[in-house]
Amino acid sequence: MNIKRPLCLFVVSFILGILIVNAIGLNQFLIVSAVILLAITCLLKKLGNYKIIIFVSLTFVIAGGMFLYYAEYRYSGSFDQFYGKLVEMKGYVDSEVQNSKNSKSTFVFKTESVIYKNKTFKVNNSILVYVNNLTPEIGYRTKISFTGVVEKPKPATNPGGFNYRRYLASIGISGRIYLYEASDIHISGQKGGGYANRLGYVIKNKVIEIVSYSLDKNQAGLLEGMLIGYKDGLDENAFKAFSKAGLTHIMVASGMNVAFIILPFAFIFKKLRMSNLSANLITIFILVLFVFVTGFSASVVRAVIMGIIILVGRIIMREPDIYTSISAAALILLAINPYTLFDIGFQLSFGATLSLVMFYQQIKTFIDSKYIPGVISDTLAATLAAQLGVVPVTLYYFNNFSTFSILSNILVVPLVEVVTIIGFIMVFAGLLNINLAVIIGYINNTFLSFILFVTEVTSKIPFSLLKLPTPTFGMVLFYYLLLIYIFKARSYCKDKKYIKHITIAIVVSAIIISGVRALLPEPLEITFLDVGQGDSTFIRTAHGTKVLIDGGGRASNSKSEFDIGESVMIPYILDKGTKRVDIVIASHGHSDHTEGLETVLREMAVGTVILPETDGRGLEKINTICREKNISVIKCKQGDRIRLDNETIFEVLNPLPYKIDSFAQEDLNESSLVLKLVYRNIKVLFTGDSGIQSEQRMIKQGLDLTANVIKVGHHGSPGSSGQEYIKKVQPYYAIVSVGRNNFGHPSQFAIDTLEGNGAKLLRTDEKGAIILTSYGDGFNVKTMLP
């Protein structure tokens, strides 16, 4: 059997193997593979000419799965016995030291040996080291040792959250360690080698030095990103502006830079009358060096591999196929580290490249007109083609859609080539004379200023950046199949009758899938989110009402700049496929419950806000936002009932009316809303930060406290979850929303009380988000961490 591009099929098979092992694990993967192999062996005669290609494809599937399994062992498994333990580590610094403004330094440490319980283990892993006030003597390849506790990176702890473990694995990192001072590190010498990295760092720093000296600060930061992918020169506001304008792709080194390197050198070597072999080998060396300069950026590595394939083709006098070149680049990267598949940069880079190759020409043909200048139609076609390929990826990961990206790209992209070429000329001139670089910089400064001006103006246009819900996997798959059908399948179908039949089949399939999904009954879903030392619960009733109770946040005395609302709450809600929350509830006025709600109220559509009937302490910001956005606010007290849908209600058990509630007047925790959710035959008790005082009062009042599940009060503090109270509740599951803290939460008292009364304890600091689903009788429990 003759296949035109076999490598494309094999790389898809390799990716499939990675995805299968990631989804079901190695053991199940091997069983499935063995069954398929057996089936193919039995059908050998019937397969005919297809048997070779099927065998090779299956081999690549198995190889992909095994490569991922090996990578998992390499980056985590071989280090498992040391995570969370005090160990002495010996090795060397394997990266440049990154220094931040607050005197904190970060570097990659390559372990050579680990000493644990007086035993020495040979371990070849990389970890991230964070340290304060690092001395200049410690730099790349410095041999050092230190004692500390290595943290195992966490995967995503909330649905749709950032998988930090997978991200670190994609760049070859196994863990991280925090050291208080540089004095904790002992220097033992300097390790040789690493010459390519050293040269790359020298060139990068020289480029930054010349560019920074020759241009204004913002212009220099932009050009550094465009030339070598260095992003520290631009501040956070600039990044946000480029994101809103849909221009983030110009801020990073990419395939365009590789082309700007190959073409000038090809011209120079031709003028020097160098042999084909010598010219291409030197160019390959320069490209490899550029990879080291840019820090192995995924887009640069992909482009360099493709460039090398093209140059090797020139050496052997053969023109490579573009799809085969892309496949070869992907296969090499994934063979080196299969976790690269899950890297966002890898997906965006290959998605945009494939989309350009597949769709550019047809879009260009469609929009070509004598009234549109060629440079505009080229830019427009390239922008549309690239955007078509990456829109689902950007929506899936970032929930962002830039509405004015086409306009900003038409204005800016034609200048990128000019700016980049002048930038390279400026750097080479700076090596000879820095004043010459400054003169050339005056020219480039004009173009860079225009790019920054366009970015700022388009980013400030109302609705320039839309926050959209996360598309489902089915939606993404349908989108890509539709694109392939529109741009490719139709061109291969000569008979219009077949085009009509395929179109009808696609539309009918979409309607059937949507209809079946709409008819299937939905369960009640309650997600206790991991928000660290805080509280947040998202409820979706069986009939679709969406309720958010508390939103996590920082303690009132915290100096952290982490925005729980922007980083956790908004992404999670968008990942649920919605931009609207029907009911937002603040249990009481402490910031570790309300801070995330403030962001939700500002950024999303909210139907109603429910607050406890108190004097409003701690809830001032929420009330202000509600007034500004005209959101209705309801204050609740004991005896009230909140109907969520025809089958689901909240019974309000606390607080009492504020004027007669002495506990609530003295202590915000005792003013917490205590809500009992009732749905068919199941009950869930939400307690806020209420303590033993409120618990005793509810018992004395004879309230029905029984519940299948209790959200444990005040993060499991010793001042909550009294013995008598828990006996009245009789919970089967006890959920503790807790993070790293200095209060000893959850207390041993609370743990003993809950477990002593038969409750199964589930903690968000150990299990991540805890998801309960129910059709009205019992619960199905799922946790983000095993």
UniProtKB/TrEMBL annotation:
Indicate whether Transferase appears among the record's keywords.
no
- Record Gene3D superfamilies: Ribonuclease Z/Hydroxyacylglutathione hydrolase-like (3.60.15.10)
Task: List localization entries.
Answer: Cell membrane
Q: Which UniProt keywords apply?
A: Cell membrane, Membrane, Transmembrane, Transmembrane helix
Q: Name one GO biological process term.
A: establishment of competence for transformation
User: Which residue windows are transmembrane per the record?
Assistant: 7-40, 52-71, 250-269, 281-310, 322-340, 404-429, 436-454, 466-486, 498-520
Q: CDD domains recorded for this chain?
A: ComA-like_MBL-fold
Residues in Metallo-beta-lactamase domain copies: 533-740
**Major place of localization?**
membrane
Q: What's the protein name?
A: DNA internalization-related competence protein ComEC/Rec2
> In which organism is this protein found?
Ruminiclostridium cellulolyticum (strain ATCC 35319 / DSM 5812 / JCM 6584 / H10) (Clostridium cellulolyticum)
